[in-house]
Structure formats: structure tokens, C-alpha cells
Fold each of these.
Amino acid sequence: MSSPTLPPGLAIQKADERIMTLNVGPQHPGSGHMRIIVQIDGDYIVACDPDPGYVHRGEEKMAEYRNYVLNIPHLERPVIHDSCNILYPYVLGAEELLGLEVPERAKYIRVIASELNRCVYTQYWLAIYGIFLGHSTMFMWPAGDRELLIDLLEKMTGARVTHSYFVPGGIRNDLPANFEDVCLRQVNYFEKRIKEYADVFYENPILISRTEKTGILSREKAIGLGTTGSVLRASGVDYDVRKKEPYDVYDELDFETNVMKSGDSYARSRIPWLDMMESCRIIRDALQKMPKSGSVRVKLKPNPKGALGSVYKRVESGRGALGCYIISDKKPEPYRVKLSVPSFRNLIALPQLLIGEKLGNMPSVYWSLNYWPVEADR
Amino acid sequence: MSVIAPNFKLSEFIKSILDNLFWILLIMALIGFPAIQLVLFFIEMPVINGELLTPFLALTWLIDPSRSLPIIKAFMTTDLFRVAAFPGFGFAALIAAGTIFVERKMLAKLQLRVGPFYCGKIEGILQLMGDGLKLISKEIIIPAKADKPLFWAAPVLFVATAAAFVALIPVAPGWVVADVDVGLLAVFAVIGFFPIITILSAWSANSKFPFIGGIRALYQMVSFEIPLILSLLGVVILTGTLNLSEIAASQSSFPWIIFLPIGAIVFFITMLAELERIPFDLPEAESEIVAGWLTEFSGMMYGLVQLGTYLKLYAFAGLFVVLFLGGWSGPMIWPPFPEEIITEGIELGPVTAQFPGLPVFSQEMLNGTVWFVLKTVGVIFFILLPRGVFPRIRVDMLLDLGWKKLIGLAFVNIFIALGLLYAGILGPGGIF
């Protein structure tokens, strides 16, 4: 009997009475805006198929119809909690194409805004990690402490979440008066607060026994699958774009990268928390070394035209290396804008990690990959 | 950070109480008195002062405080009052409602937020009532392929079983709905019903997530029932009875927790697992299996299951108090009733009223109830506390804990009890 012809990409599976197929998401409290098709045998996962694409919005195509400045507000939509960082590579690339020199003070302010935004994103991520493990206090505490930094960013940029702060040639507006003192005070208090999370969450015996030795990603596999950011560093690879390819003023600032060897869910959840403390250190250092006065933006011609050519820039976002590839053909609009997002790179590791795990480990392994569904879909 | 909650003002607090008082009086006049009359119609009427009490007479006497007391007292001796109001359902539901309110506010304080605030004007005290009204007004959706009779029956059975559990708990000397000689065995029988109801509802919903949740609940309840029963054997050995009232009465000088702390700890942990509280809330783990075996319940069916859960919580806390903390026993703190009110009466403005029926409750009963409620509320507080501190554990860790650690500890507890008994220190014929 001949098998029916199927469209490419589809396959027929034999039904097995022992195997149960679960559609986790998109309408599921533990999935985010995506679907994970999980097949379980008893309590063990035998097959896993992540199915992103539920919130695809065509940001890259939209970027081909707007000029270099009008692209700013919509390009930060894929991950609004980390909006400064997702805009950073695009702005760096646009500056090179437009031939702009950024003032020194603007570079420092960009670093401060980017690090504040990294903390805001990580707090949100940590809150969801807490509730995925059934720890409701760890959902409320980061969500509340995040307000401190959101208030700071509101003072800087005027918006609480979608800042649109970075523009080609600098930043949109200068810092308000007396910002340095307020920033230092809030950041110090914030650091004191996040150190308290160790008592209630990271040193909690139940949490450690639940997440240690689950979803282990070895060093070779982490490199081979192309994961980035905290996932890569939790597997023992010391790679941080801020150190390896410093952009703006990161080479003048004093900080370290956090690396853990074990590569399990616990290490992957601990690395972003340690990174937040490094971010606080960077902010304090940048506030000290920043020029106290000067211009923050070079004058931009209306509707500027990019030079012929292409440019690829990378930054370290809250989730990992985030790249932006821009092709220009001497028009006010870019010919092509391609965002290379860390979320999608980290998601590739998910099927490898989940097979053989228990169903109860699925939320912790899935969210420890530092994955943001909307960013992966773009 | 902005402050959401306005400042507390005493004048506004008093005003809000007065506002509510008006509505309470209105509702009493419109609904309360007719309801009392209906109840009076059905109960067996006593003969007071040579007259058979009729509902008509009762309504006239209710207005006269000195003559209404015998009616109230006669009602309190009926079984209806015991089942519906005092040691039974009404009392337990009141404590359950208080538990929900305290849980929400305490968890909110722990997590640096406000909690229920606006509903009811006083610290959101009517939030539970609002939630109940919302659940009643919602549509009940039943899955198309569900086994409908079983699916309907499950929440009702759950509440009924929880209420049967409540009926076995003695609150004060002589105040228990069902005073059976094998009370502890009856408790085990009732606890044994919960997994059956759970798997019944999970299977009849014909859906994947409730099915996984039901299987998890079955694992959890069955494997924790064994250490639960074993941990209570120590108390039975020392008291020599299965009657819960006698067990409570045997602790008039000291509670058993002093001699059997291991048994108390094992019972407390198994209690958390039987109640599906964090860290053992695997059957309802929302990030893994949506809401577990409750996923397909909607509207008041879900509300009934929640009511049953909190009744069960009260009953377990009461059982812990009766078995390990001495039940109603405690120093006498309730003031004695002044005799002059009966003999001479009190002056209410221009008239002098005599109350021949007073006191309604005896001093021992009131004192015992106060101690029982205080101890139960303390135990409930410790049951609620882990929710703010611990994450959820995994199925294999749960079974490991139940089968390997708690059963061993329960046996250690039994040997301690046997040692105390044969050394002649405690138990029937012991020194104490």
C-alpha cells in the first residue's frame, strides 16, 4: 500500500498507547507566547518539539520601509523590557553607515542606560522563573524591586518601558539635573536587595535539589549548538561580547564575567543574578568616569542617506549576543535589516535538554534558557 | 515607589463600620427574621411555662429578650444546631473564611504588597464574599466528552466528605457532632475517601492535564496516608482509646507533643501533603499541568472544591490540636457569669429585664472553645507559612520523602511510645 503524498516537512507518526502528546501552550500558564509539543511516557519526556512563531510581527520587513530614525520605535518592540539593548546594535550600525561620530558623554550614558535595562529585563525574567518553580515570593520581590530602576529610566528617558532613547549620533536628550546622586543611591539599594534573594531563593535547599543536575548542557554541546549569553557562560565558556569585542566605552570600564562549570538549570538561573551585580558595578564605575558636561548628540540631517555597503554589529544583551546586519543602497531607508537574536539561538538547545527529563522539570529547564518568545519571533 | 494604599484614619474606620451596620440591620429585618421563623417551624417545639411553643408565639417572644432566651436555648440542644451551626459546618466555614483572609493578607505582607484592600472598605474584608458571588454568577462549562454524572458529583462529594471530617472533631467537652468510640478509625476512613474523589473527577473530565494531576494526587495521598496513620499510633498506644474526645480529655495536664515530638512533626508534614499545600502542591502545579485535577472545573463547581479544601484544612488543624496539643484543655480564662443578672435582672433604660435562661453556654464550654480556636488558628498559621518560603518539589522527591524518611520516623515514634508505656511512665496505669 502506497503512503499518501505529504507536503514537505510533514511526517506520519505511528500511534503508541503508552505515549501521551501534550500541547503545552500557547494558552498555558507555563509556556509564554509559544507552544512546546511534548510527548511523555509516564512522567518522562520522550520527545520535545518547540514551536515558536505565535507572535511573529515582521519587524525586519517593516524596517525596509522607514528611514534610519523612524526605525527606532518599532525595532525595540520585540523585547520591550530590554529595549535599549535590542536597539544598540542597530544604532551602532546606522552610525557607521551614516558616518557619525558619537560624543564621549553620550557613550557613557548609553552604557548606563543599557546596564539599567539589562537589570530590568533580568528581574522580570527572574520573577517568572520564580513562579514557574511555584515560589510566589520570588515572583513578587523582583517585580517590586524592578520599579527602582524603571523609575530611574523614566527620569532619563521619559518612558517607563519603551524608551526609544538611543538615536544615530548619540542619545535623544541629556540627563536631568542631579541624576548622578539619585542613580547612585537607587543602584546601591537595588544591589542590597538582590543580595537578599540568595537567602530566600538561591540557597533554598528545595530549589537546589530541584534544579541541580537537571538539563545539563555540556561545554562542547553549548558551543556546537551556538548558544549565547548566560547559557553559554553557565556551561563553562568565558564569552561576553562586552569583553571580547568592546563597543562604546566598555573597554575603559572595570568589570568581570561570571562563569560556572556545571551547565545545569541551577547554574543557568544563577548567572543572570550574578550579572546584575556586575551591572551595578559597571554603572557606578561609569558614573565616576563620565565627563560631567558636553554635548550628547551630533546634529543629524533630515532624512539622511546611508553609504553604499553593509555593516554587522553585536552587543551583549540581557540574554546573550545580539547582532544586527544592515545593508544600505544609498537610500534614506535601509535595504535590509536582519536581527540575529539570542533567544532563538538558546531555544535550539531545548529539545536536547528536555528528552529524558521528568515532566516536573520542564518549566525550570525551559525558562532557564533565558528565552523570550516575542524576541525569537521578531 | 508610589503608595497605593491611603493612610488609616480612625474616623473613616468608624464611619465604614456604621455604614455596614445599616445594611446588616436591613438585611436582618428583611431576610433574617423570616428565616428564623422558617427554622422554628421545622424544629421540635419545647413546652415553656406550661405553653407549647408555636412559631407565632415564638415571634412575639423573640421581641421580648427575657422570654426569647429559652427558645434559643431549646434550639441549641437540637441536632440541627450541632450539624449546621456550632461544632459543625457553620463554625468550620467561618474559620475557613478567616483562614482565606489571613492567608491573603499575610502572604501580601510577606511579598511587600497590600493584598485585598478595597472590597468591604475595612482592609478588603469582604473580598471573599465578592469572589464567591463572582463564582456563583459564572457559567458552568462541562467538557463535551466528559462523563457528566460523575463530573457533576465530584465537587459535591468533595465538600460532603470534608464536612464529614469536620463532624468528627471535638471542639469543647461534649460538643462534637458525631461522638463515636472509634473516632480515629472514622477519621482514617474519611481521609481514605479523598483520593477516590480526586481520581473520579480527574478521570471523568476526559482531559489530559486533569488526568496527570489526578494521577499525581493519587500517588501523593496514598503514599502519605501510611506515615499519617503510623504517626498517630503513638498517641493511641499511650491513651488506650480511639475516641477523639477521650484523647483530648486525657491531655488535661500536658499535651502529647512533649513526649511524642517526632510523631507530631511527621503528622504535620503528611498533613501538608494531604492538603496539597506548598511545597507539596504537585496536583495543582500551574506551570506544569495548568491547574491539575481542577483544570476543567468552572464557576461554582470550582468554588465548591475550594470550600471543601479549606474545610479539610480546618479539620486537619483541629485533628492536630486534639491529638497533640491537648484539644480544649487550658487554664480557665473565661470570666464566670454574674448571678445577679438571673436573680435580679439588669436595667435597660426604664425597664428591668430578667433573663431566666442565662447562661446559654456553660463556662467550661466557652473556655474550651476559646482554647481550641486559639490553638487551631496557630496550627493553621504554620500550615500557611511555607507558601511564602518554599518552591514546589518534584514527584520523585515527594515519594522518596514519604516512603523512605517519614515511615521510618513514624516507627521511631511508635517505639518511643512503647518504651514510655512499658517503663510505666505514661499510659493506662502510669505515673502521670
Amino acid sequence: MIHPLDRKLLRDLGRMKGQVLAVCLVMACGLAMMIMTRSLILTLETARSLYYQEHAMADVFTRLKRAPLAVAERVADLPGVATVEPRVVVDVTLDLPGVSEPATGQIVSLPQDGGEQKLNRVFLRSGRFPRADERREVVLGEAFALENKMRIGDQLVAVINGRRETLRVCGIGLSPEFVFEARAGETLPDHKRFSVMWMNYRALAVAYDMDGAFNDLCLDLAPGAAAAPVIASIDRLLETYGGGGAHTRRDQASAQRLDDELKVLRALSFAYPLVFMSVAAFMVNAVLSRIVRLQREQIAQLKALGYSSRQVGVHYLKFVLVIGVIGTLIGGVGGRFLGEHLVGMYTMFFKFPELSFRMDRSALALSLAVSMGASVLGVLTVVWQAVKLPPAEAMRPEPPADFKPSFFERMGLTRFFSPAFRMALRNIERRPWQAVFTCCGLSLATGLMVLPGAMSDSIDYLLTFQWNSQQRQDVAVFLTDPTSTRGLHDLEHLPGVIRAEPIRSVAARLKYGHRQRKLAITGIPAGADLNRLLNGSDEPILLPTEGMVMSEKLAEVLGVRVGDELRVEVLEGKRPFVDVPVRGLVTDYAGVAAYMDIEALRRMLKEGDTVNGAYIALDHVKWDDFMRELKDTPQAAVVMVKRDQLAAFRETTGQSIGIIRKLYFVLATIVAFGVVYNSSRIALSERSRELATLRVVGFRLAEVRGVLVGELALLVCIALPIGLMFGRGLALLIMKSFSTETVRLPILISPASYAIAVMVVLVAAISSFALVSRMLSQLDLVGVLKARD
Amino acid sequence: MVFEARRLRKVYHTGEVEVIALHGVDLELNAGELVCLLGASGSGKSTLLNILGGLDVPSSGELRYKGWPLANSDEKALTLFRRNCVGFVFQFYNLIPSLTARENVALITDISRDPMKPEEALDMVGLAARMDHFPSQLSGGEQQRVAIARAIAKRPEVLLCDEPTGALDVTTGITVLEAVERINRELGTLTVVITHNAVMAEMADRVLHLSDGRIVSSHRNAQRLPASQLKW
């Protein structure tokens, strides 16, 4: 049996279904975003922890030059170490049939004699591991296999230590250390041109003169053991074997990339829904204030009948509770739908044995709490006003609204204003909070609308900046080992090379205070013209003859400023420790880097004219000839082709940001429409008597429409610039949350994006006005006028 | 003759119920007359007034305003008719609360063909001194007088008043009726007043009794009693 009051509630809600729907939808948008992001976080975290656990993701990783296998046993004996897996890991060039550019691969050895991997166990999607005696069989990374349509039994040519070898695919697999499958130092995956492969230890070790030795080590820590002391002992132990410095899982490329993504999602799960919920709270407040004003007499009657203030209060709170529940339900369904579709996007970046959407049920409960919280907070004062009204007073019609000349009129500007405009100004001044709330809602909607455009601008700028202004080379080639400048000359003499600039990069650990970061310091000539270093204003930075220039993000990570001195621990060759001052900061948007003048770097390394790579500009007519010869250049270990990187970026990050952008656009449109519709609907209801009077005394429908729309149009005009500023702030916040070591989005908003935001809000406003105008034309003039206020 | 109605019928359909509000009314109203419509609730007097004022259209029958057919006019024509020819006064004053007395009147004078000045209209209802007050600063009687000033500022041919004193006490009600009377007398406006109050009929030239959607009686007062002498 439904209580009569609840029946009243349902019927009241039914009568205002348009507005209820508008509020519920806005609320649902925010909740859907929250549920979606939190569920994606849960999905990724669950998949990760399951994968890491079941396939024994290592805790600590390190590279070295070469060490006998016995050294691995010594590492295993170190306190705090549980399991050790020595391996041979090499970079190779791949020659794919029908593709001119060389691809690169990373081959990881599988344990000797067909034994089982102890750590970073490969998950076999299909096929089998190489047979114990098989030299040319490989398990191929799934992403590369899919992208290049390779199947078990297919063959591919790899240049292994200078020799072209034909490898046969015996299995397709993936590994927890390559959830994000990209070349070392690459921020974006290029599954077409990069593959990880697993091969028998002996076959690989023999080819690289590593038989009985290893050049890569990963290990598991004993339960409760701290990583830092173990890393210190390993580094000490491996120093004589060319150890490159161990790092934990946190600094492992793939794991870090996954962490970065989760960080972005966490920020989104909070900031974006917060805006929606604020808008929803404003709207709920507006709707309920109106109901309470209209039902003034009903409240009095209920109290006269003996209902307590609490019962009346609860009755009106139920309005928002129903709205909250409907909003949460729609949001839950929407969030699930969006989440299920967006999980597909993550499979482009992250390779798990299985990535299936998991709904975060706690997010649903949280959503309900947040929506209720926001709504109740939005209406508390209104409900309080309703219940504190003494019945006798409430029974009397509300006294005529108290008006006075508006501020502008008091300034003597009356003669410039039409009566309609005067009415609008005075209405706003009389209920400033209502106007402020409407303005806030509209501003937030406008702001939300700026975001998708800002993202698009940002990506466009990033593409131009990164791949036109900064990287002007066509190809970057890295050699297997540092050589004399002869190596550069060899590259220069390949067909079609217009210009080649040398690179000497060296692995190092940069320390400042208690912070440190392991990365490659890149040495390039001071006036380098191909890979240019630019500051925030797009101006080239000239490398100083001493000292270092680094990414702004790296400086932030290390906490250094220009002028500070870093401790650099070189992790190759003579492994010197040097103090190097930071001389400048580079603006870049993908990865982090540290640069030095190549001469200064060589002096620091105490070596001659060495190079280990080059940036190359090509004559495009001879593109294929260059690539063909490069494939036959055994020293070329890694080849990065700019246009491929660009294509990969467009296919992955570009596409995923595109999806998010569209999603934001749709959500912002719903909010803009909802807010304007709600406000005009309330204005129509509250001012129906005024509007009917005007109609009766002979105002045309269009003139009355002007009076109704005037006030809202004025609020829209006030809200738009505020909204654009807020949009800029929001874009700043959201893009900062995207700012990771992997990718950063430049904050840049074109006038077109602002214009689109304004236009969408105006279109939403105009269509809402049109809808409300239709209601206005159906207004029962006599009925309204004969009714008591 | 200002209005001429023949076999005027109005039927409302509310859900499945058919309510006949006017049952074939024949009526003639002349310039300068002050006519009182008396009748119980639901007798059809408001429906008749609304049809005369162009707020509603009859279901059948003929209605002419100065020979011009009103019954079949569209919304646009009715708006123009209300704008130029009719002034309304309702029981609840329906002033725009955000506009002062003068501005409420100016609202009409701005859109009329040959209006009087707002000040002049307010002066006629005795509110010259309260012109810049907002409705919330005026008493009920004063608000109703602003409504009358607003209705007559356009110099309408017809002034239609639906229970103009319904929400007022006696003294205030009489002040309002005095204003109505003065307009009728000085401007020669055909004035139709709806009331429950039979005493008010004494100030009219003609009194029409409505019952059940029909005019059941009509009589002409030999002499109009001035509003100031009415008592109830």
C-alpha cells in the first residue's frame, strides 16, 4: 500500500517528467563517467595483478654487458633475493616481406634445455615453446603477430649478430613484462614494426657469444625484503660485468606505462564527475525550490492536518532521493556500457591474456552516495524553508514579490532599457542566488564543452610540434655498439641520405637529492638541426658546451631547476661519476630525455669521437633503396621511422583520445541542453502569470517569448565568458592529469574550440527556448490569471 | 452597437465529460453602457466575458464586434483585437511585480495605437502620487486601480472586469468601482462587470442574470446609483 504522500510524490514527479529527466540525465552523465573510470581501473588492476601473479612478474630488473651464469647464482645467494632468472636479451632488425622499412625485434632467451621459466613466464596464446634442440624456432609476440597477420609456421628474417637468419614461428605468446609492448624508450607502441620474441637460450647465446653467460637478469624479492639494499648489492656485484643499474618493477617500462594510465584514470574518475555532480546539484536545487514555492499551500495543509515538520521535510527530500536513484540507475547502465566499449580501446595498448570488463560495484554504491549527497546538499535550505513555515502563514498567498530598481537603473541608465530588459534585470537582482546557480550551471556546461575541442587542439599541436618542429629527421638509426665516426660516415653514404647527424647516447643514472632516474643521456651536436631542442615558445635551444639540458617533465620528476647540479652516474664503459649542471629545459610531450653537447658527453665519458646512432634526413625518392641497404647493415640495431611512429600514434593514442573526446562532447551537450531546458522550464512556470497577463493585454506570442527568453538570454550571455574561462581551467586540470612521463598534452585552446563551445551552448539554449516557447503558446491564459498565486 | 451575439454556444470537453458553458446566448451591447453580469458559480458569465474579450472562441454561433466577425478569428487577429480594443481587469490584479505602477501601464501604452500617457491613466484612477511604487509597495485596492489604469490606458472601446472587487474589502472595493465608473463616464467605454454581488448591479445601466449558460433575465436600471453610495 503506497502512502498517499508517496502517491503525491510520484504524481508530482510525473507531471514534471521533462525536468526530472533533464536532471537525471546530467547526474547520470557524471555517474556514468565515474562508474566507467572506476570500473576500468578495477578491470586493469585486476587483470594486472592476476597476470603478474600467475605469470611471476619479476620484482627487479637489470641489464649488463656479459657475465658468466655462475654470477647469477651469486646474485641468488644475496640476502633478500628469492628467485633469479638470468637471460640473454638482444635487439635485432627484422626484414618483413613486402615492407621496405626494417622492423625491430627484441629477442628474450628461454631457459636452457627447455626448462620452465621461473619469472616473467610467457603466456602461450597458441602453438608451443621451441623444442629443446631447435635453433630457429621462436615464440612471437601476439601484438606483432596480429598486426602483421603472422601465424604459426610462418617465417621471418632477423639479422642476428650481423647474420641474416630465417626464424620460424612455433608459438604466439605474451609476457607480463611486455603488457605494454614497445621498444625501450619508446612512449607509444608500434605493433607493426616492433616485436618481442622468445627463443631457446642456447641458440641465442651461441649467436652472440654468450654461451654460459647472460646479459639480462630479473629476480623476485624474498617476502618482506626491501628492494633498495638488494639493488645496491646487485649493482655492486654486477659492476665489473658492465651492469647497467638495477631497477624495480616500478621503473620497468611496461609496468610504468600501465601505472601512468591508471594515474590518468584515477584523476578522471574524480575531477570530471565532480563538475557534473555540481551542475546536477544546482539543477536539483532549482527544481525543488520551485516545487516548494508552488506547493506552499499544500505544505500548510499537510501541517494543518497534523503532519510533523520532519514528515514534510522527508517528503520533499524524497523528491531528490528519487531523482538520485533514477540518475544512479541510468548512470550505472551508461557506465557499464561505456566501460565495456572502452575496454576494447585498452587492448590496443595493453596486452593481457584476458582483459574483460569488470564492473566496480563499489562505484555504484559510491555513485548513489555522491548523487544523494550532491542532491541533498543542493536542497537542504529549500526544504528547511518549507518546513519552518507556520501553517497559517503558508495558507495565505505569498505576498507580492518585493522589487526595486536594479543597480543599473539606480545608476541612471533606465532610459536605455526596454521594459522586458528591466524586468529581467530586476528579476535577477531579486533572486541573485537563483541567477548565480543558473549561471554556474550554464558556465559549467560551457566549460565542459571546451574540453573536447581543447583535447583536439592539443593533439594537433603535439603532432605538429613533435613531428614537424622538433623531429625533422625521417629516420633515427641506433647501432649495436658505439663506433668511431666511421660508423656515421657509413650511414651517410647510404643511398638517399641528405643529412646525417651523429648521436652518442649513454645509459646513466641521474641523481638529485634523494630522487633519481635511470635513462639514456643523448649527446648531439650543439647546432643540431634534425632533432631540434625547443623551448616553450618553439625557439631552438643551443646546447651549452658544458652541462645538460633536459625535458621539463624530467626536471619536475627529479625536482631540479636550471642552475642546479646533478650527480650523473654513467652506467657504461668506465662508469664515471660526474656532477653536471642543468643549463636549460626542453619542452617536449612524449617521454623524458636529457641532452648534452656530443663533445661534452664524450669528454665526460673520456672517449674519442664515438657515435652509436644518427638522425637522418632522406631524399624520399630513394626511400626504398635506403631501407633495403639499411636492412643489410648489421650494425643497425634499432631503426625508428618517423612516419611509422606518426601512424602508430594516430592509430593508438590519437584514436583513443578521439573516442574520449567524442564521449566528452556528447556528455557536455546533454548538460548544456539539460541546464538551459531546466532553467527555461522553471522560468516559464514561475512567470506564467506575468506572461499570461502580457498575452491577455495584447502582447503577441513573439513579444511574450522575448520577455521569457530575455532573462535567460542575459544569463547565458553572462555565463558564456565565465564558462570559457572555467573550461580553460578544467582543460588545464584534466590535461595536467594526463601529464605522465609517457605523454603530456600541451595546453593550447584554439579560438575555434571556444567558438564551438559557445555555439553548442547557444544551439542547446535556442532549442530549449523553442521547446518552452511551444509550451508558452499552449498556456491556458484564463486559467493562470484566475488562479491565486 | 459594439457587440452582437447570436446563438452563442460554448462546450468544454474535459476527459469524457462534456460541459456546456453557454447554451445559445443572444446579446447586444452598446457603446458607453455599463453592464453587470450576475450569476452563480458555473453560470457561464466568465466564459461569456472571455469570449467577448477574445480570450476564447465560441463552439458555435455568431459574434460580431462593430460588425466584424470575431467568432471565427484566428489567434493573430484575436491578439490584435485584445491589443487595440479591449481592456481587462481580473480579481487578482496580475501586475508584473518587477515593474513599477507607471511601468506596468507603460507596458501597454508602448504597444497601443493611440494610448494616453501612463501618468494620465494613473491619474484617472487616483494614483498620480504612487506612480513609481512597485506592486509590493501598494495596497490591494491600489494594485487593482493600477490594473484598471493599465486596462484603459490604450483607450479601449471595451473594458471587461471579472470580479474586480472579489479580493478587496468594502471600502477599497468602492474606490475601485469609482474608478471603473469614472472611466465609463468620461471615456464612454463599454464596460462589462462580472460580480457575485447583487448590490453592485445598482451602479449599472443594464443587469443581465445568467444561469446554466443562458441569460435568464435582463433589466435596465431607471437610474444608476453612484458607486460611492453602494453599501454591502
